[in-house]
Design goal:
Number of domains: 3
CATH class of the largest domain: Alpha Beta
Helix content: 10-25%
CATH superfamily of the largest domain: Alpha-L RNA-binding motif
Largest sheet: 9 strands, mixed
Strand content: 25-35%
Distance between the termini: 19 Å
Number of strands: 17
Radius of gyration: 22 Å
Amino acid sequence: MSQAVYNTCMEKQTLLKALTRDDIGSRRKIAEAIKGERVTVNGDIVTVFNHMIDLKKDKVLLEGRAVVFKPQRFVYLALNKPKGMLSTVRDERGRRTVIDMLPEKYRNMRLYPVGRLDKDSTGLILLTNDGDLAYRLTHPGFEHEKEYHLRIEVDLDGDEIKRLENGIELEDGKTAPAKVEKLGGGKYGITIHEGKKRQLRRMFAALGHSVIELKRVRMGSLKLGNLKEGEVREVRRDII
């Protein structure tokens, strides 16, 4: 049985987002209709894209026709990203992204990756169409942990471990303290709650080490587990 959780959307949304999410029309056509005073909310013409509406209560007319909003289905997928794939929805240069790896039935659900892994890193990526959850998982104020396993050429010494645990000064500011676990053979488990660009690679570069392998194994309470590279599994929202 599928473990995907589909929640009815109860939240308010902007007018433009609400009218484009159910394939009512392209973003361009909807925007033109709003600007052209062809959209009303509860009888009033609205020409502002970010006008907030209640999907359950407000009556929206598009060019005189009532818009019926379907309950939004939220889906949550864990993906084990292989090396070389981009953790983005699309790439202007035509390179393969994590969306290209999804089974066909998920392709039109407007899923997007939560957080990023650089092209050379592997491991856990969460894909969802739940914007509220994505915000809470990525905003630094919520301090959701992310755990990684990485390998370098040689073992760290005690001073280097302390520097990681106290925070490393980078060009865009000092990192928050990291949790460091020695796994042996130049391998370490590193837990952080920030998401600076290529953060771990830059932290280790500041110590004079190149990261040979980097895999994310956990996001909050969601673990990679035995998921094979390139595979996806559906997960419940309450375990993320």
